[in-house]
Amino acid sequence: MEWLEGLEVGVGVGDLRGVIVRANRFLAALTGHLPAELVGRSVHELVPATAWPIIEEHRALRRAGQASSFRIDLTAKAGSARPVLVQGAPWLDSAGQVVGSVVLVTPVREIRAGFARIPAGRVAGCPLTPREREVATAIRGVESTRALAAAMGVSTHTVHAHLQSAFRKLGVSSRVGLVGAFDCGACAEGRFVCPKRRGPGAR
Questions:
Q1: Tens digits of pLDDT across the chain (203 residues)
Q2: CATH top-level class of 118-198
Q3: Roughly what angle, to the nearest 10 degrees, separates helices 156-170 and 175-185?
Q4: Residue among 75, 87, 97 nearest 30 (CA)
Q5: 2-108 fold
Q6: What CA–CA distances, in Å, run from 34 to 42, 77, 162, 173?
Q7: In the chain, which residue ranges form alpha helices assigned H by DSSP?
Q8: SS3 category, 74
Q9: Is residue 12 within 8 Å of 1, Cβ to Cβ?
Q10: Cα dihedral across residues 13, 153, 174, 138: positive or negative
Q11: Identical fold at 2-108 and 118-198?
C-alpha cells in the first residue's frame, strides 16, 4: 500500500470500532500528527464531540456495506479546526466481509480552489452556466447532494436547482448521465458534442 503515500489526498483505514489502522502522510499532515501517531487512535479523537453523531451515522452505513460522503471539521493537534470532505467506503476482507472503513479526506479549501480554476463566464458552444459546470465537475467524487452543497458552500436547494437545469440542457436524467454528457461534450474545453445529442454550437 505504499502507493497511498503518493496521493495528494488524505487516506485512512479504520476497523469496525472506529480505530485507525492505517493513515497516509497527507492525512497525518491535515491533523498535525505523524502517520504512526494516528494508528491506534479512535477517529473520535480527531473531530469535535458535536460531530460524533455524524461519525456514528456513517460508520453504520459502512457496516451495512454502503459508501457515503459528508463534510466535517478535523481537529488538528494544535487545536485548530480544518473543514474537510470525507468520502468513505466499506473495507472488505478476502471473504467479502465488512471489517472496517476506507476514507478519502480532502480539505474543503482545496475543493473550492479547484472550482476557482474553472474558466469564468460561459464557454462558447457549451449550454451550461459556470455554476452548472462547477456542479458537473464536482459530482464525480461526491456521493450526496448535502456533501456537495457543503463543499461548494451553498444550500442543497441551490445544488438541486443547478443539477436539474444541467440535466435539462444536456438531455439527461441522472448524475451518471450528466457526467457522461459533460465529458463527451467537453464543455470545459469550449465545445459540446455528444453521440446521443448535439447542443448549441456543436462541431
A1: 555 555 678 899 999 999 999 999 999 999 999 999 999 999 999 999 999 999 999 999 999 999 888 888 999 888 888 888 888 899 999 998 999 999 988 887 765 555 455 455 445 567 788 888 888 777 766 667 887 787 777 888 998 899 899 888 877 777 777 776 666 554 644 333 444 443 444 33
A2: mainly alpha
A3: 60
A4: 75
A5: Beta-Lactamase (3.30.450)
A6: 15, 10, 40, 45
A7: 25-31, 35-38, 52-63, 108-116, 130-138, 145-152, 156-170, 175-185
A8: strand
A9: no
A10: negative
A11: no
- Give the cell for residue 107: 480539505
Q: Please, are residues 145 and 156 in contact by the beta-carbon 8 Å criterion?
A: yes
The partner residues of 20 in beta bridges, in order of sequence, read 14
Provide the greatest CA pair distance for the chain: 56
Cα–Cα nearest to 110, from 31, 56, 30, 51: 30
Q: How far apart are CA 63 and CA 41, in angstroms?
A: 19
User: Domain residue spans in the chain?
Assistant: 2-108, 118-198
Beta bridge partners of 100: 15, 91
Nearest Cα neighbor of 103 from 47, 159, 176 is 47
Per-residue DSSP letters for 62-98? HHTT--EEEEEEEE-TTS-EEEEEEEEEEEE-TTS-E
